[in-house]
Amino acid sequence: MTTTRATNAQPDAVRMFSFGVFSKLEGAVTAGMIHLGDRLGLYAFLAENSNITSQELAVGCGLHERWVREWAYNQAAAKLITAHTSADGEVRFGLTDEAVAVLVSPDHPAYGMGMFHRLPQTMRALEDMPASFRTGLGFDYDSHGPEGAVGIERSFEPWNQTFLLPVVVPAIQGLEQRLSEGASVVDIGCGAGGAAMLLAQTFPKSQFKGYDISHYALERAKVRQAEKNLSNIKFVDPRTEPILQDRSVDFVMTFDCIHDMTHPQEMMQTIRGALKDDGVWLLVDIKALDGLEQNMAKNPMASLMYGISILSCMSSAMSSADGAGLGTLGFSATRAKSMAEAAGFSRFTQLDIEHSVNAFYEIRP
Questions:
Q1: Please, what is the end-to-end C-alpha distance for the chain in angstroms?
Q2: Which domain holds residue 186?
Q3: Rounded Cα distance, 75 and 70, in Å
């Protein structure tokens, strides 16, 4: 049957389909080269020394020229770095301003090296996936090791550092005043603690507590807290120090973590139990739509999102036998609102905040 169908395939259509398949492989291989460019400091050197030869790039980074040259050819062919050949055949490489923003500048909101930082750990999960497909059991984020936690930190903090204070906080009515006067704040799924520490520095009268189940992320958060000498924040594992259900918290925030959780509905109920009746929950999560058809039609990165879901997000969400397994694109606004209402919340508002990946929701009891 399979042989017959392959024989019936039209030659031109086969060539086009094959091109599409191998373009995906090209993307995967070039992604690995982006990881190397970041890790070896090649982009950083190009940002400061444009229009240079591969020899100059290699010497500047303390690397072997032949390997650097082949890397540069890949990057130029992928149109990630510039390449200009002189009349005598000498090739010089550089970066555009836009490339510097995305590849080199962690203070720029478009900085994108976080996902590439943890690319080896993410792709290494492929070795575990056949077992997951057979048993249904996934792996939590600590399966990606300490570099996985650093990659998450580098992925999300550039945008938060730029927009959390001037855009997100003022978008929630009364929040800035409450934080200024002194509030109880909980960050669930805090990761390396960047968002919570930024708020803790800005609002010293408020008390902050960050929760995460990744011991790699918590270790990183505690080191950074000590470096910043912050006394109004604490980082804990909720399995050893549970989130109190005493309705004493003014403000809860969750950044890109609810869809990763094995029991998201139970977590929403926990958040309601922690929050004061006049408190507010900022839910930030992946901008998903209702179902495959809508996601395919309106999200040009849908295939990437579904793939990352298997290697990371959904794997985490199914790391216990009864995990919900929402997945990267499984937590749409419709579903989030329904789950929030089931957890005891009555007011659900999507905030008018522009973000390439995330949606922002203000949720109140």
A1: 58
A2: 123-364
A3: 9
Helix segments in 136-182, DSSP class H? 145-163, 169-171, 175-181
Q: Which residue has the tokens 């949720």?
A: 363
Q: How many domains does the chain have?
A: 2
My answer on whether 88 and 159 are in the same domain is: no
Element (H, E) at 340: helix 333-342
Condensed to tens digits (0 to 9), the pLDDT of residues 85-140 reads: 999 899 999 999 999 999 999 999 999 999 999 999 999 999 999 999 999 999 99
CA distance 343 to 147: 34
Distance of CA 325 to the CA centre of its chain: 18
Same domain, 99 and 226: no
**pTM, 2 dp:** 0.93
* Order of strands across the sheet that contains 358-364: 233-236, 207-211, 184-188, 249-255, 275-286, 358-364, 347-350
d(CA 208, CA 268): 19
For the segment 250-291, what is each residue's pLDDT rounded down to a tens digit?
999 999 999 999 999 999 999 999 999 999 999 999 999 999
**Residues 236, 180 within the same domain:** yes
Domain boundary among 76, 105, 134: 105
